[in-house]
Write a structure and sequence with these properties.
The chain is an alpha+beta fold. It is built from six helices and 17 strands. 28% of the residues are buried.
Length: 289
């Protein structure tokens, strides 16, 4: 492989057309242009543009007895669709998946409305062209008039639907997120349905991690009341002034919320973390639904 290699490790892989039922051990090499799997007399080169789906942790039923930590790739060939399953150490596979999504998504030109909705209100934000990059748990968009990001920790939901963007009907991703105390919806469209599908996969992967993390958070009614009070009062609030409870008890509750990563002490006072804002917004949506 003559081009720059962004991932290179030894693992196991299985190809749907390699004529055997067990995976083989070999070398996995990834560049921005292609993925090469080679080992035990088998070698395949998969161009990045041929891949149309990437699933992390999903193994076809017939292969589950052979694999644990995996990335499964679906790709097109001249003879039809094929599948490759790549396995490695858990940390290695996590890094490989991240690099693989970056190779597909970074630098893609997107059309974005940010925000398309603010709270429950449609915002007349013009669509603009931007370059997408994914890194450090964020979607970043760079256009001629600046840069903005969506912190994936603040995403509460997303869906793929058909939207009218810049005067034409297009399939797009609508991403609901809560960067501060107001829920926003941003709409992202790409000219390539293949890349849009991969962006959806990436969002689902990151979103499932957030949901799993939040599912492990157990909150008492008292803790929820303190979170709602901070949310309602805005940033820089002193919770002891807005929570109608004994000060010492409120302090104890706040310490527990800090340990759970839901509030943090900023320069101007106690604030909700992105995780805390998602928790509160989810609760408010339950109440209003």
């Amino acid at each position: 492989m003559s081009e720059r290699v962004v991932a290179d490790f030894v693992g196991r892989f299985y190809l749907t057309d390699m004529g055997r039922s067990e995976p083989v051990r070999g070398r996995i090499m990834l560049s921005p242009k292609r993925l090469v799997l080679a080992g035990d007399g088998h070698e395949v080169t998969i161009p990045m543009g041929a891949m149309f789906d990437v699933a992390v942790g999903h193994v076809p039923p017939e292969m589950r007895e052979f694999f644990s930590d995996t990335v499964t790739l679906a790709y097109n060939t001249d003879d039809g669709r094929r599948m490759a399953v790549v396995e490695g150490e858990a940390d290695t596979i996590e890094k490989f998946a991240t690099v693989l999504f970056k190779a597909h998504l970074n630098g893609q030109e997107v059309t974005v409305e940010h925000p398309a909705r603010r709270g429950g209100r449609v915002v007349d934000t013009p669509a603009r062209q931007a370059r997408l990059s994914v890194d450090g748990g964020t979607l970043a968009f760079r256009s001629g008039d600046g840069r903005f990001t969506i912190d994936l920790e603040t995403v509460t939901d997303f869906e793929r639907d058909r939207r009218t963007i810049d005067g034409s009907s297009r399939v797009a991703l609508s991403v609901r997120h809560v960067p501060d105390t107001t829920a926003l919806v941003s709409v992202i469209a790409l000219s390539s349905k293949r890349v849009l599908n991969l962006l959806g996969r990436y969002l689902r992967l990151e979103y499932s991690d957030v949901v799993e993390d939040l599912s492990e958070v157990s909150l008492s009614d008292e803790e929820m009341q303190v979170l709602l009070a901070i949310y309602s009062a805005g940033s820089g609030v002193d919770p002891l002034e807005v929570v109608a409870a004994d000060a010492s008890r409120t302090t104890m509750v706040l310490n527990g919320l800090r340990e759970k990563g839901l509030v943090v002490d900023g320069e101007e006072g106690t604030e909700l973390t992105p995780k805390g804002r998602v928790v509160v917004n989810s609760r408010l949506e339950e109440v209003n639904s």
